[in-house]
Amino acid sequence: MNSLNFPVIHPSFQKLKRAGRLLHLTAGMLILVHAISHFQQPESSPLYLGCLLLMALDIFILVLAGKNILMDMPRVNLFFRLAEILFFLGIGITLLLEGHWLIGTTHLLLCTVYSYLFYCEKKLGSAEYLAIHHTGISIPSLPESKFFLWSHINAVDARYDCISINTANSGSYEFDLRENLAFEELDQIHEFCRHYLGAGR
């Protein structure tokens, strides 16, 4: 038997995809607020102000134009997420150097949060698969996929539209499948289970 891979729908991944637009919008609003604050300063730079406004405008257009941006344009999404990270990092360091500790630290915390988000979003395209191997089962998870040896698995309930895995220590996991299993695929899963768990499922 060869290893089996199935695309699944992971609730945490779906929440992250839905939250992506809102997080872009939040970053755009913060950049716009910073631009307005910079404009009110007596020694504001027109070039810097223009860059901030252009960046905020680009993000707003991206949010309005791309409802399913994480799925339709993952590289564009990651590019803008990286720009947001660099903005928060640059502004945070600048504010700290100017002695604005609270606001500077807040921007650096936002940089950390958006960096973690970037890391998770980078995985979305390739990590949403459940895989059954001869050594065990790997399931998608954030920030890293999880792997369970067969000795740590109590039961596997495979149906045409979903798979449930009951583990010894970490509880149960249930995933809806993106496509219904063919009869042969379901039979292969049962064969794995019979071989390693001594059960039909």
Can you characterise this structure?
The protein has 201 residues and is an alpha+beta fold. It has helices at 11-39, 46-65, 69-72, 74-97, 101-127, 183-196, and strands spanning 4-9, 129-132, 136-139, 146-149, 153-158, 162-167, 172-177. Strands 4-3-2-1-7-6-5 form a 7-stranded antiparallel sheet. Strand 3 (136-139) and strand 4 form a beta hairpin. The longest helix has 29 residues, at 11-39. The mean pLDDT is 82.
Mean pLDDT: 82
Order of helices and strands: EHHHHHEEEEEEH
Helix content: 55-70%
Q: What is the rounded distance between the termini?
A: 16 Å
Strand order of the largest sheet: 4-3-2-1-7-6-5
> Number of DSSP helices?
6
Summary of the model, kept short:
By secondary structure, the chain is α+β, with helices and mostly antiparallel strands. The protein has a seven-stranded antiparallel sheet with strand order 4-3-2-1-7-6-5. Helix 1 runs antiparallel to helix 2, helix 1 packs across helix 4 and helix 4 runs antiparallel to helix 5.
Which features characterize this protein?
alpha+beta
SSE layout:
Elements: E1 4-9, H1 11-39, H2 46-65, H3 69-72, H4 74-97, H5 101-127, E2 129-132, E3 136-139, E4 146-149, E5 153-158, E6 162-167, E7 172-177, H6 183-196
Helix pairs in contact: 1-2, 1-4, 4-5
